Each structure stands twice: as structure tokens, then as C-alpha cells.
Amino acid sequence: MHETANSSQQSAPASSRAWGVAAFLAGWLVPGLGHALLRRWSRAVVFFLAVVALAVVGVWLRGDIFNLFSGDPFEFLGSVSDLGAGLLYPLARNLHIAADVSRAAGDYGTRFFAAAGALNLLCAFDAYAIGAGFKR
What we know:
This protein is mainly α. Helix content is 63%, strand content 0%.
């Protein structure tokens, strides 16, 4: 058997993978917390502010926060994106602000909150990659 020329693509040790999973879960629950655990302070602050700003604007515009257990497959997909916002999802669901998607602002609000969830998931995966040693 021959060795690969690029040894930097070897898998990370199990302990660093566990650290990456911990950073992912922390970053998913609270935006930026995974990067804060990894002492990436500027990324943590920027990601926290960006995700929270998107979520707050989405709620302020009275966007629809999707229900996870509805029978509609499209609403389920929307709720998966909303769940990406971590603890902001149950917070927004419990605010009891009636969604108003009959006007453009409400529809934009729905998209803003979904974008907050998608961005938070990307940030959490970035925290995993750094914590697991795949990225510096």
C-alpha cells in the first residue's frame, strides 16, 4: 500500500472530535457560544450579533415561526430551518406574536427567522470544524 502525499487530511483524534461536537452543540443552542468556548472571541461576537439580529427582525416583522409537528411537509422543512436558531426558536414560539404573512413584511419576517436558523447552523458547523481540528 502506498501512503497519501498529503498527511494533513488525516482524521482528527477522538478527543478533538468530542471537543468539536461540544462546540457544535453549544454553538447551536446559543449563537456564538461554540466559538467562545474555542476562544475565538471576535467570531463569537459577530456570529451572535448576526444571528440574533436576523431572529429579532424576523419576529419584529411578525414572521411565521413554524410548528415542528404539523402535518404539512413544507411547514416541517421551515421548522427545521427555524430550529437551527437554537434556543431562539422556543423563545420566539413562546412570545405569542400572531404571524401576519398576509402582508409583505410578515413574509419577510418568516424568511429572516429562517435565515437566522440557517446561519446559526453554518456557524455551529464552523465551530465543530475548528474544535475537531479540521480548520484553524
